[in-house]
């Protein structure tokens, strides 16, 4: 063991007559360590796949590739330092900083992969995907900030000076990028107020916005319109417009006017009674909601019956099927009573012919 420490110390200092051999030994050791690491992680993956936990799979997947790269990059930096010390007059001290940056980069990479893997695993069974996405984005931003500060410290920069400059620079940047900040706080408002989430069908009566929410970013929200076009809306817009969330409806409304002829006035009561009975017994009509069937209006050429009710389903396609079924049943009821639907008509009244002749004489 003492010989190993002496050899390692000499290798770090770059003073060795057999430096080429030492580099070969170091790279060979890296290859053996890399192969052992691959075998170990492969076995761990087989073990974690048999468990119900999601964190063990996420962690093993997160560390596997970054550690593999570090196993090669770290010895490569040592080897490069030995080559520089033995073949030139330049100092290889900068490689110590590079090795520290390798460690910082590896930790950042592992944390980012762990966040992504956990987000993907949790989102498969989670009900609130929007919150999970928001938390993962905040965690990624935190990792980037902490990793950047650690890298700056390794490069010899003063963190107090960086933070002071960041405070002054942040004020300047904030004034120059107020729209960007407005969009960022708009995203925060969406995450906390939750007027909508991924997959919701939304529309705004204030703007020409309607479609399904596919992505909520820190700057824009992507909405897929019903003609399959992507619509990118700045998040700041949602703080000043009315948003209607159709996906959170409890029911869908059927509101129709059934217009009968004036000569069917004596059949109105029976038609109204049967339509109401049909809706009450219909499997897809929510009878706990408002249900109105009544003679509503004397039209210019028709007697109008108001049909007002709500379906149990909120799905657009299913709703249209239920509405069609109800309207066809109304047609059958009208025909069964010997009535018919009215259409716009005009009646012209003329004076009697004898009165016209009398006036002519």
- Series of secondary-structure elements, N-terminal to C-terminal: HHHHHHHEEEEEEHEEHH
| Radius of gyration, taken over Cα atoms and rounded to an integer in Å | 38 Å
How many DSSP H or I helices?
Answer: 10
Strand order of the largest sheet: 4-3-2-1-5
Task: Please state the average pLDDT score.
Answer: 79
Structural class: alpha+beta
Helix amount, in percent? 55-70%
Indicate the low-confidence ranges by residue numbers: 3-7
The fraction of residues in strands falls at 5-15%
- Count the E strands: 8
> What's the story with the biggest beta sheet?
5 strands, antiparallel
Shape: elongated
What is the CA-CA span between the terminal residues?
143 Å
Description:
The chain has 361 residues and is of the alpha+beta class. Helix content is 58%, strand content 14%. It contains ten helices and eight strands. A five-stranded antiparallel β-sheet has the order 4-3-2-1-5. Strand 2 and strand 3 form a beta hairpin. Helix 2 packs antiparallel against helix 3 (55-87). The longest helix has 33 residues, at 55-87. The radius of gyration is 38 Å and the shape is elongated. The termini are far apart.
């Amino acid at each position: 063991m003492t010989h190993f420490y002496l050899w390692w110390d000499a290798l770090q200092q770059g003073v060795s007559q057999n430096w080429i051999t030492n580099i070969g030994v170091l790279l060979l050791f890296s290859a053996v360590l890399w192969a052992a690491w691959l075998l170990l992680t492969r076995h761990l993956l087989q073990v974690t796949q048999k468990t119900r936990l999601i964190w063990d799979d996420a962690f093993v997947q997160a560390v596997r590739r970054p550690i593999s790269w570090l196993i090669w990059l770290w010895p490569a930096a040592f080897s490069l330092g030995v080559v520089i010390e033995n073949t030139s007059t330049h100092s290889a001290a900068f490689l110590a900083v590079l090795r520290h940056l390798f460690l910082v980069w590896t930790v950042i990479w592992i944390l980012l992969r762990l966040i992504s893997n956990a987000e993907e695993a949790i989102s498969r069974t989670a009900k609130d995907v929007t919150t999970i996405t928001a938390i993962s984005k905040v965690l990624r931003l935190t990792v980037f900030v902490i990793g950047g500060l650690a890298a700056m410290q390794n490069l010899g920069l003063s963190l107090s000076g960086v933070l002071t400059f960041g405070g002054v620079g942040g004020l300047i940047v904030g004034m120059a990028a107020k729209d960007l900040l407005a969009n960022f706080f708009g995203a925060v408002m969406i995450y906390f107020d939750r007027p909508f989430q991924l997959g919701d069908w939304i529309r705004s009566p204030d703007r020409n916005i309607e479609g399904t929410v596919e992505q909520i970013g820190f700057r824009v929200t992507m909405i897929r319109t019903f003609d399959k076009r992507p619509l990118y809306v700045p998040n700041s817009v949602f703080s000043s417009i009315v948003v209607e969330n159709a996906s959170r409806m409890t029911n869908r409304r059927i509101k129709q006017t059934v217009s009968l002829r004036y000569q069917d006035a004596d059949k109105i009561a029976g038609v109204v009674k049967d339509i109401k009975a049909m809706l009450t017994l219909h499997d897809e009509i929510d009878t706990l909601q408002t249900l109105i069937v009544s003679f509503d209006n004397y039209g210019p050429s028709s007697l109008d019956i108001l049909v007002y009710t709500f379906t149990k389903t909120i799905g657009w396609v299913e709703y249209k099927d239920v509405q069609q079924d109800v309207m066809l049943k109304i047609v059958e009821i009208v025909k069964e009573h010997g009535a018919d639907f009215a259409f716009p008509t005009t009646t012209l009244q003329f004076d009697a012919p004898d009165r016209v002749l009398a006036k002519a004489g």
